[in-house]
Amino acid sequence: MSSFRKRHVQKPVPGTRTSPQTGQIITSSGNPSFDVIFGGGLPVGSICLIEEDKYVTFSKVLAKYFIAEGVVSGQSVLLGSLDDDPQELMRKLPKPLNDDEVEIEKSTEQENGEFSQNGLRIAWRYNDLPPVNSEQIPSKIGHHFNLMEHMDKNLLDFVDTLLWNGNSYVNSDEVDDDYDCGLGDEDNVFSAIESNTESKDDTDQNTTSSSSGSNISCKEVDLEQERINAAAALLSGNSNETLRIQNATKLQVDAVQAPIILGQKQNNNCEKIFNNSKYQRFLKLVQSFAKEEKFSSSTLVYRSLCRICITSLGSPLWYDEEFPKNILKFLTVLRGIVRNSVSVCFITMPMHLISKYDESLVPKIRNLVDYAIELESFSGSEHETNNAFKEYNGLIHLHKITAVNTLTAYMPETSDLAFKLRRKKFVIEKLHLPPEMQEDIKENMQTFSCSGGSSASATSMDF
């Protein structure tokens, strides 16, 4: 009997490719020059931390790139933020460019002479060398975007998106800004179910008292549509639960298993690991979203990539009495969710504020992510008026690069990187110092002797 078995080749996830350096499945961050830092793109199952600049200008641009790439690639996007309005952020995504527009833009930049702004002529022997401040070579995946124009709203209609602002979440089919499902507020969900079941018991006390526990008929609980979606999303992860939605306005719970659900309310305090309910609400939303079959790594049919973006995590709106414990627990659980699904996470954090709250938190947070990159802006600093950095808007510091599912991590050619925000795009380049164009005045000054003649300075004398 032959032991030959046909090999089942998994279809590649849309918007991803295999990295030639590490053999990992990678996806674009939305910015081609930013992908070079990771060796072509972000590995699937990784968490990238962007340490925000002081005025949250450039980190928000990278977050828009990350979300826009998921929309254009047809991937699912989960966006959560307490400081920004998620719907407003989605409306201001940059416009994608096609291949012809990208080529036209490159040729226009070369004609304008961006690499020779001073108008200097180079010696013929150095004419064939590449320019020092050339933009890093982009990867083969990903798209180019125009920051001056916004994305067409029709593109957002065909993408599965989930937006969370702390108290509510809005699905791609929902457009109401005040939509509140109460997800994560387990006490309210279960108290609503319990109060409705108790009211039913009062009206049907004669019939229910005579019936046994196994023959109790199904009871209809009238809840609002928000509570229906909340309870379903809350318990959908457990296959043994019997909570199910019969139609768009009514929820039926089997009375046989209703005590199991109500018993979970009593043990709810033991299951809570966060004192701040915001962390638990968002993690439950992420877990229910990432548990869909299309995000499973074992699925052989159709798989999709889940992009999780959290902006300004750890800002003062997330603070409480036990903020250090909550933020570390949150990142630990989030890392487990991302690792066990076909997803990638992009987080921005105001690390300069967190360091003032507790300086020991900074290395602990970096230890719980795969990539930690700091954006140092020149705005409001002494570098803003320095001629050596006049071409750039800030520096990039690589604090951590992890080897995800590989023996060695990809390291970029150089860690001396700077970024500039142009009119239409965000560019990361190799840091270089401009040539010294001004001679020192003291070197050109001549010293006069007592006889009225001039003599060369001591620094210019040859021995």
TrEMBL record:
It comes from the Eukaryota. It is found in: Cytoplasm; Nucleus. Belongs to the ELP4 family. Its main location: cytoplasm. GO terms for cellular component: cytoplasm; elongator holoenzyme complex; transcription elongation factor complex. Keywords: Cytoplasm, Nucleus, tRNA processing. Residues 1-24, 194-216 are annotated as: Disordered. One of its GO terms (biological process) is tRNA wobble uridine modification. Pathway: tRNA modification; 5-methoxycarbonylmethyl-2-thiouridine-tRNA biosynthesis. InterPro entries: Elongator_complex_protein_4 (IPR008728), P-loop_NTPase (IPR027417). Signal peptide: none annotated. Residues 205-216 have a biased composition (Low complexity). Residues 1-10 have a biased composition (Basic residues). This is Elongator complex protein 4. It comes from Bactrocera dorsalis.
